[in-house]
Amino acid sequence: MDDTQAVVVGAGTAGLATAAALRRAGVAAVVLDQADAIGASWRSRYDRLKLNSSRWTSKLPKAPYAEGTPLYPARDAVVDYLERHAADNELDVRLATRVERIEAEDGGWLVRTSSGDFRTRQLVIATGFEHTPSIPGWPGRGDFKGRLLHAAEYRNAQPFRDQDVLVVGPGCSGMEIAYDLAEGGARNVRIAVRTTPNIVLRDPRFPADLPPQALVKLPPRVGDALMKLVRRRMIGDLSEHGLPWPEEGVFSRLRREGKAPAIVDKEVVEAIRQRRIGIVAGLESLDETGVTLADGTRLEPDAVIAATGYSRGLEPLLGHLGVLDERGIPRRHAAEAAAPGLRFIGYLPRPGQIREMGRQAERAARAIARELGTASGGRAAA
Fold first, then answer.
1. Residues 367, 373, 374, 377: what is their CA dihedral angle, to the nearest 10 degrees?
2. What angle do CA 48, 54, 57 make, to 5 degrees?
């Protein structure tokens, strides 16, 4: 059994940021991850993925992007960035180590893993807000003879050339995958929409995520009204294309559900206007050869791609500790301990999420250093 001052679970953005902040605060930390490589969730996403936020607001403390990185870094640039961050900070990352259960023990924590147990006074969970792919339990789901997959399994359009594809979900991933399919030779592409999304354009010249980071501090109704004006000017009315004005604004929905708007390139919106991407009603059920939509329409797609989001996947690890709410989301975040010596980083959705994770990590590291009484932690907290 290993004893260490701090254990961080998760070698993604939040976990690496936390471990680096702890090291600067004079706290020795071990990072555990079940994957075989750092930043595994980024590596597994679709090929054309790029950040919704700019590199200006997507960097961790004391960690600039490499010279020449585009304004909106692509998937592989983010992977390189995380690898370099871990190396530059000489982080102790233990890969291929699956955390199986966490128990409170003698004023600290016992972390049971596939590679043995770890005992620590301070534990940080940073496995990611989008951890476990989630597909709804649609009636008939098991009967469908076509291809049914989650967006997390999608890489590129090649396997879907000349096929009829239904993408379920109008978020960032759903819209971008639909566009990738339309560009990549799919015969017919539709997006099934149950709740009309808020849409924000990713401006190629200016970091479009800067204004929302200021607006999120205002009352939601104020931010909603301003973002509606921006959408009216930059996108206009898409009602005739199946996307009427959403009933709930950007910040109200973010506050209520933790759901960000669909942030997409202008080309995606144009493809919807040109009807290269069709908009249909939400998916209700499946059968052997097709699907039925909420308005009664029946379609027979060759493939259904569920861009239906993720769960946090935390219940098996620590659902028994009373630190999660009914949705499986931590009740307390960052520097605020969920239980003595237990903190969560990266579960509070905000514009500029990566920079926000870095800030959460810094605050948590200072709090941990104070609790452990490390000398450099005292200086960092001053």
1. 30
2. 140
Main-chain phi, psi angles of 374, to 5 degrees? -75, 145
- Among 1.10.10.10, 3.30.450.20, 1.10.3470.10, 3.50.50.60, what is the CATH number of 2-131+312-381? 3.50.50.60
Cβ-contact 273, 241 below 8 angstroms:
yes
Decide: 281 and 294 in contact? Cβ < 8 Å. Answer: yes
pTM of structure: 0.89
Q: Is 317 left (phi over 0), alpha (psi -120 to 50) or beta?
A: alpha
Distance between CA atoms of residues 380 and 382, nearest Å? 6
Dist CA 312 CA 310 (whole Å): 7
Degrees, nearest 5: CA angle 186-189-192: 150
Q: DSSP characters for 196-216? A: PPPEEE--SSS-TTHHHHHHT
The second-level CATH assignment, the architecture, of 134-306 is 3-Layer(bba) Sandwich (3.50)
Q: Which residues pair with 200 in a beta bridge?
A: 263
Please report, for the chain, the start and end positions of each structural domain, with discontinuous segments joined by +: 2-131+312-381, 134-306
pLDDT tens, residue by residue, 317-360 = 999 999 999 989 999 998 999 999 999 999 987 777 899 999 99
* Cβ atoms 5, 121 nearer than 8 A: yes
328 burial level (CB within 10 Å; 0-12, 13-18, 19+)? middle
At what angle are helices 13-24 and 353-372 packed, to 10 degrees? 40
pLDDT in tens, 62-120: 999 999 999 999 999 999 999 999 999 999 999 999 999 999 998 899 999 999 999 99
- Using DSSP's 3-state secondary structure scheme, residue 252 falls into helix
